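Hey team,

Filing this mostly as a record. A colleague (T.K.) asked me to run one chain through the structure pipeline before their review meeting, and I want the input and output archived in the tracker in case anyone asks later how it was produced. No errors, nothing strange. Just documentation.

Input sequence:
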Amino acid sequence: MSKKQRGMMVIFVFVVSTMLISACTQSLSSAPVATPTLLPDGLFVSPFPSVENPMAMIEEFAKQTAAAQTTVANGGTPATPGAIVTATTPLAETTGTVLAPSDVIATATSTAVVISTPTNANSLPAATSVPAGVRPASYTLQSGEFPYCIARRFNVDPDELLALSGLSSAQANSLSSGTVLKIPQSGAFPGSRMWHSHPDTYTVDSSSETIYGVACYYGDIDPNAIASANGISVSASLTAGQQLQIP
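Output structure:
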């Protein structure tokens, strides 16, 4: 190989090496040109590219909402914003429904507040007297009561009451409390059911008296009515000299 050929070979190798080094430098220093991805804008497609940047998604929606409000304030018709999708899967995998501003409804959950009336510990239960004209099938005698006053109270014949209960007239005044009487469902008391006039004020003679016995004294009045008129329990203990209002 001549000296001239050797020189040409060196120059050729140098040029080729320079070109290779230049190509490698450009591939490492130059970033690839970004190619924009075209997104479909159909009715059921989310306009947001991904959920990897949720703040960008929220910001975009805020811009759309602000633009719609500005358009409405100026008398125009707001444009339809992007789909609002609530899901646990990424937006790229979720199919949402486009909502117009007028379709966004805030639903408030109402909580019923129940206000209870405090119960007075000293209040007495309401009287449970038998309604007028109603006769129970049976009745248990209380302290101070006897069959004839029960016949007056429920407007039944006392003899029929005793016979139905298997009792004689001789036993009528000697029955103890707790005796169960059977009440006739027909007939009436012979004569006036009221034994003593009322309304009245009754003075208790001794502590052995009961509200039931006081009711028997008047004949046709229910003991629960006397208890209610005086604000006491029907089984309350009485004291000598105590004044009772009789309705």
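Quick notes for T.K.: Residues 130-193 form a domain with the Membrane-bound Lytic Murein Transglycosylase D; Chain A fold (CATH 3.10.350). The longest strand covers residues 200-203.
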